[in-house]
Amino acid sequence: MSCEKRVTRIAATRNLTEPLLGSVEGGRLSNDKVWLWGDDNMLPYALSLMARRCVTHRRIINDKADYIAGKGVAYDESIPILGDIIRHANGSGETLRSVIARLSLDEAMFGNAFMEVVTDPSHTFLSLYHVDASSCRLARDSEHVILHHDWRLYRPSEARSLPLYPNFELQDDGTLRSIVHYKDYEPMFSHYGVAPYIAGMGAAAILYKTDKWNIARLDNSFQLSGVMMLDGAVDNEEEADRLVRMAEERFSGNPGQVLFVLRDNAEGDSSRFIPIDTSSDGDWSKLHEQSESDLVVAHSWFRSLSGLDYSSGFSTDRILHEYEVALNTLILSEQEQLLEPIRDIISRTLKVDASSLEIVNRPPTRSKPLYMRIWEARKADGLDYNENDPEQQPFLAQITKYNIRSIE
């Protein structure tokens, strides 16, 4: 996307320096070059793994990101360049909504998100790219972000550095680039944000482990777990280990569900199976349900918006009510946090008024069909109505259209 030259001011353009990227110590970036993200600098990897393993946790993250990204971006049609940015946010052909959707997913998962800003010294174009948050670390100067595809095997030659917005730096390809760091505030954490669900990490771990426990029971064909005492004479310890392994492979189903013990008993065969009491299965189920509820609370989210209560019946009224609460307590504030830097970037770079940019929100369900007339909807809600009033004759479908264009 290009436009005519509108500005002449250029932000700081200090060139990249190799010392900023640091050196390798044991395959990792030396600690004095970046602020560690977690004790071992691998916290994003751990959060990603948990999101891939815990079903409920992943569903809540996906739903929050989807609601925050909305259904499109609205703008003032009298400023066509805003429509160009919404339709073509970058050279990869992504829309602004797709960029915002990825940013909202990162922020929901990590409590941090990064967006690269690209322009040229004449500010004739503007591109906005999402950057995978797990690849970013803050430099010790607190003015740059260092990007690397795998922080477990850091190599300076494969890393690059970008200044934090509003500073820009000139790159080898002649472009000016900067990076925006979104982060969820947490006291005592000044460099990185903290995931909003941090208090629910234990609950997410319990959900994953209870699911894993059920999978183990299924793999074991729901056989009783216990201890199998085997009588037998062996010449050495190696022979005893071999016999136990053979018994496990043949009889235990899932190794570890049955513990085999081999002993030498000269007074006859006393082999026997000692089952482990499984009467506490119900406690596991209750533990899973309690952890699920705790995780929803930790996310500041709602059960019906993640499909957790569909088994008890589909309640449109409850979904709409909880959506309205989520919209006014979480969704709108998160959207404003994402859009505020984007508006500022567009205004500073292209010198146009971007205040009209808004994310379009639509409820997950409709309480009234769109073919109802306004007076019919008012009647259904118990409000005053006049079926002969011309202003109450349009269908709901007509008044739900936005006065400003929405780009999906």
Write the SSE topology.
Blueprint: H1 18-21, E1 24-25, E2 28-29, H2 43-53, H3 55-69, E3 73-74, H4 80-87, H5 96-110, E4 112-119, E5 127-131, E6 136-138, E7 144-147, E8 160-163, E9 169-170, E10 176-183, H6 201-219, E11 226-231, H7 237-251, E12 258-263, E13 272-275, H8 281-298, H9 316-350, E14 358-359, H10 374-380, H11 396-399, E15 406-407
Parallel strand pairs: 11-12
Antiparallel strand pairs: 1-2, 3-14, 3-15, 4-5, 4-10, 6-7, 7-8, 9-10, 11-13
Helix pairs in contact: 2-3, 3-5, 3-9, 6-8
Summarize the structure.
The protein has 408 residues and is of the alpha+beta class. Helix content is 37%, strand content 15%.
**Count of structural domains:** 4
The ordered H/E elements are: HEEHHEHHEEEEEEEHEHEEHHEHHE
Distance between the termini: 18 Å
Q: Please state the average pLDDT score.
A: 80
Radius of gyration: 29 Å
Helix share bin: 25-40%
Low confidence ranges: 1-19, 24-31, 401-408
Number of strands: 15
Number of helices: 11
Task: List the quaternary state of the chains.
Answer: single chain
| Strand order, sheet with most strands | 5-4-10-9
Major sheet: size, sense and barrel closure? 4 strands, antiparallel
Q: How does the overall form come out from the CA principal axes?
A: flat
By helix and strand content, what is the structural category?
alpha+beta
Give the percentage of residues in beta strands.
5-15%
